[in-house]
Amino acid sequence: MTGSGANNRDVKKINRIRTIRSIFSCDRISQPELAAKVNNSWPTVLQNVKELMAMGLVQEVGTFESTGGRKARAFAPVRNARLAVGLEITQNHVGAVLVDLSGNLLHYERKKRLYERSDIYAEMLARIVQGLIEKEGCPVEKILGVGISLPGILDKEGQTLVYSHALGLRNVPTEEFSRYIPFSCRFINDANAAGLAEVRDLESPRSLVYLSLSNSVGGAILTGGALYGGDHLRAGEFGHNTLVPDGRPCYCGKKGCLDAYCSAKVLSQLTDGNLALFFDGLRSGNAALQTAWNEYLSYLAVAVNNLRMTFDCDVIVGGYVGGFLAEFGEPLREMLVERNTFEPDSSYLKFSRYRLEASALGAALLHIEAFIQNL
Ligand SMILES: [Zn+2]
């Protein structure tokens, strides 16, 4: 095998991936548009299109009128040619999604199921997967696999859950979660999964930082659309950045961590553990809750500004609290402008597109992405 042979194969693969991404990023695309998007000659693109059509992933859908007199052929994605399931496991709930090859959410459900380390729990996960597939009436052979999001740190291979405070686990084989699920399973940290979901379907892969404000604070760093894990797969554990030296105690045993100031629990503990009630209180003008919210935002502004200064890219804020920022987060923008050394606005701050479904969706996308990469 020669080096140039391998290079040719790489180029062919890159072209094929570009072709499928281009077709899947729109409902219908003409031959010249597709050649321009893939940035290759039509005969080369056509070869890929033919192969993708033979696999049932792309279909020809008539013609476009073209100014040159000749009609241009048109192609469309077969989005449901393959599907993937995503599960999000938390201490108290299991979320489940079914997504198509474009990463569109076909179904989402979330059930209250307390985590316990048992066979009964693992069987229940398998039943949720089975139920989802049956409900949607999708043929089993279309399912690429099940992505499972876990609230903790995993090893590189996804075979061991190294540490999960939320589930009270250390060094547990992930097979404990998947043993009754009759599909290929992949595992991912919850905040990393949510970050992947947020960058999905952007045509050109970007760099961004995702800050997740749920019952614990986590995050993800994505460079060029790919996750940056760090030496120990702990990159993006922003919850344990020191925010206030010797400040409030954190669940990790240290003091002053961001988690102690910006987790969703900081707010929900003021309204009987119910975060939605906290924001209902803000809507109805509860002064004490408003004071708590202002304080929360002032700490969040420090955290977000630090991320902007460190990474110089968009910062997406998501998680349970992120879902309420479109309505209640405007004051955060002003606080960010005040802190920013270089910029007069906070347009780099984005509120997450997804709410509770982000992590399950991101986990399912692992299978979609692997499928596309291995075409
Ligand atoms: Zn901590």
From TrEMBL:
Q: Which InterPro entries match?
A: ATPase_NBD (IPR043129), ROK (IPR000600), WH-like_DNA-bd_sf (IPR036388), WH_DNA-bd_sf (IPR036390)
Biological process, per Gene Ontology: D-xylose metabolic process
Q: Name one Pfam family in it.
A: HTH_24
Q: Which UniProt keywords apply?
A: Carbohydrate metabolism, Kinase, Transferase, Xylose metabolism
Q: Which domain of life is it from?
A: Bacteria
Provide a Gene Ontology MF annotation, just one. Answer: kinase activity
Q: What does this protein do?
A: Transcriptional repressor of xylose-utilizing enzymes.
The entry sums up its family as follows: Belongs to the ROK (NagC/XylR) family.
Protein name, as recorded: Transcriptional regulator/sugar kinase
Name its species: Faecalibacterium prausnitzii L2-6
Give the source lineage, highest ranks first: Bacteria, Bacillati, Bacillota, Clostridia, Eubacteriales
